[in-house]
Amino acid sequence: MATLFVDNLTVLDFSYLHAKRGMVGESWMVDLELSGELDEQGMVFDFGDIKHAIKKRLDDTADHRLLVPADHDQLSLREEDQRIQLEWSYQNGIIRLGAPVDSILQLPGEEISKGSLTVFLIERIREVVPANVDEVLITLREQSLGTAPFYHYSHGLKKHEGNCQRIAHGHRSGIEIYENGRRSRYWEKLWADRWEDIYIGTEEDLEGTYYMDEIPHHRFRYEAQQGRFELLIPEDHCYLIETDSTVECLADHIAGELAREAPGKHFRVRAFEGIGKGAIAEAGQMRV
């Protein structure tokens, strides 16, 4: 029996429901190992087929979705006409979501973890590998950022033609901020704290603010190519911006806010959207 491996096969960007933190944006890299007998080509499985079959299966299953623990007693789900209505109660309030059914992935168990998602994805991969593959192993892992700050954010991009239009998907993102040409861990930590477990919403998508058990909740709603999306989430877990929440707009927003908060200084922001990609923005001017 032989084993092949593919490191960094794909990155899964998604959000999940947590009993204490609410809605959490996450980005996990996927490493793959396949073991089995060699086929007529002398391979366990062709690397090209791995990208087309296995990567696609992983992306179609878990990427850009909201992952929910199907057996948690605080979760209520109702599915009708290819739409799903969800309610999640946690210590800070209530999350309600109405969306096309493909926006959600229900996982067995009472919490979302690397272990529960790993088991689920391995079963999905077994459906697309050839008969000579006897063992499938995947490893889910975060990007190693050392001591560098990062934040978890969720959002939705109604104008996007792909799955980014789903109103509740997210990322685990690093940030680099340079003040007058020098990297500033102070400003990086400030924004990482500001956007810890945050939902970034566009002001024009905000339908209103409602009190649930005396706790203010924002309600967002928009129409996109995949259908109608609605989200109710506690106000203190939201950050409103005037623009869409693309990473280009987020980098520009952060740079602009920094220039406003620290006038007379120049800022360069490298904001990540998950792993290995993002946008750069600059604002402000150094005093002469």
How does this model look, in words?
The chain is 19% helix and 48% strand. It has helices at residues 47-62, 114-126, 185-194, 247-261, and strands spanning 2-18, 22-36, 66-69, 75-80, 83-90, 93-100, 104-107, 133-141, 150-155, 169-179, 182-183, 198-202, 206-212, 215-224, 227-234, 238-241, 266-272, 278-284. It has a single domain (2-172, 198-242), classed as Tetrahydropterin Synthase, Chain A (2-Layer Sandwich), CATH 3.30.479.10. By secondary structure, the chain is an alpha+beta fold. The radius of gyration is 21 Å and the shape is globular. The longest helix has 16 residues, at 47-62. The strands form three sheets. Strands 9, 10, 11, 12, 16, 17 and 18 form a seven-stranded mixed sheet that branches. The protein has a six-stranded antiparallel sheet with strand order 4-5-6-15-14-13, with no helix packed on it. It is built from four helices and 18 strands. The N and C termini lie far apart (69 Å).
In brief, what are we looking at here?
With 288 residues, the protein is an alpha+beta fold. It has helices at 47-62, 114-126, 185-194, 247-261, and strands at residues 2-18, 22-36, 66-69, 75-80, 83-90, 93-100, 104-107, 133-141, 150-155, 169-179, 182-183, 198-202, 206-212, 215-224, 227-234, 238-241, 266-272, 278-284. It has a single domain, classed as 6-pyruvoyl tetrahydropterin synthase/QueD (Tetrahydropterin Synthase, Chain A, 2-Layer Sandwich).
